[in-house]
Amino acid sequence: NGVVEELKKLTTHVTHVLPVSDDGGSTAEIVRVLGGPAVGDIRSRCLRLSDESSVEALAVKRLLGHRLPLDPIQAKAEWYTIVEDQNHLWEGVSRPYRETIRAFLVYFQNQILCRSNDNFCFSNGSIGNFFFAGARIFFQSLDAAIFLFSRVSQIPVNSFVLPAVCTNDRLTLGCELQDGTIIRGQNEISHPSSSSQFERFPQRVNKASHPSSKLPASIKRIFYMSSEGTNLLHEVFPAVNPTVLEHLKQVQAIIYGMGSLYTSICPSLVLYGVGEVIAHQSCLKILILNSTHDRESYGMSASDLLFPSAMH
């Protein structure tokens, strides 16, 4: 996301390809109760690209970027003031926008109430994630939800935010280590939480994981898993979003943004067809490195990071 701010100063003609396998933060709670793909990364990118040229645009961005309190009781109470149009966050949002956004927040709330066996925890919940999830379930389409969110947040017309996989199913990221160990879940691979504060509020992700909590062995491969149609997670091979391939064939440059190599970049590269299209492109290809190591890249040099990117 940090690169986006600088990139916007150069051009808005950019296609952003993002994975839908993040199982941390408030996204995890939405997926647990309502199922479906993780929308947190897509929501975050849409907000980064959103319009800030007017008072109303800033008000909409503030509303959709708001997070509820960490305390579950306080979070639920504040959520109800937002759904009932009684919160100061609605100030500056005109009636057409207000009715559109609120309609999908109410729909999201109704979907939660329909799952009476699962108590939804609003702790640290993202209003943008709730709006996005409500739209996806209503339209039964991830693409339609992105289109709506893009219009509401007024991202530039030449900017596209695409999911690497276009699905309504829940996808889990898995990895195999060099010693044969299998780790299930992006959060467990990248940002495992063990301290008491995170046990108390499982929706909060410890993204400050220090390289000292390194993996027991280096990562051999990344793959997708699903429990759809069965009670057990098993490896699956989802199809790449065809729109991603279309855009890749027309690019002037391909940029691999900063982030976790194996859980942010590779989930898009392992999809069948992506590597072949990229390999045939003679355009400039840029890998922006992190300034420090993370759990996934502990001990790796800059040249080491190029190998898994090329192999996937």
Describe this structure in words.
This protein has 312 residues and is of the alpha/beta class. It has 2 domains: 23-159, no CATH class; 172-311, no CATH class. Helices cover 44% and strands 12% of the residues. It is built from 14 helices and 8 strands. The chain has helices spanning 2-10, 25-34, 40-49, 55-64, 72-83, 95-114, 127-139, 142-152, 186-190, 196-200, 242-248, 261-269, 274-280, 302-311; strands at 15-18, 160-163, 172-177, 182-184, 219-226, 234-236, 253-256, 284-287. It has a 4-stranded antiparallel beta sheet. Strands 1-2 form a two-stranded parallel ribbon. A two-stranded parallel sheet has the order 7-8. Residues 195-212 have low confidence and may be disordered. InterPro entries: CofD (IPR002882), CofD-like_dom_sf (IPR038136). GO terms for molecular function: LPPG:FO 2-phospho-L-lactate transferase activity. Pfam families: CofD.
The DSSP helix count reads 14
> What value does the average pLDDT take?
87
* Percentage of residues in helical conformation: 40-55%
C-alpha-based Rg, rounded: 19 Å
Q: Which residue ranges are poorly predicted, with pLDDT under 50 across at least 5 consecutive positions?
A: 195-212
Ends apart, CA distance between termini: 23 Å
Global shape: globular
Number of DSSP strand runs: 8
- What sequence of helices (H) and strands (E) makes up the elements? HEHHHHHHHEEEHHEEHEHHEH
Structural class: alpha/beta
Largest sheet geometry: 4 strands, antiparallel
Tally of individual domains: 2
Adjacency order of strands in the biggest sheet: 4-3-5-6
Strand content: 5-15%
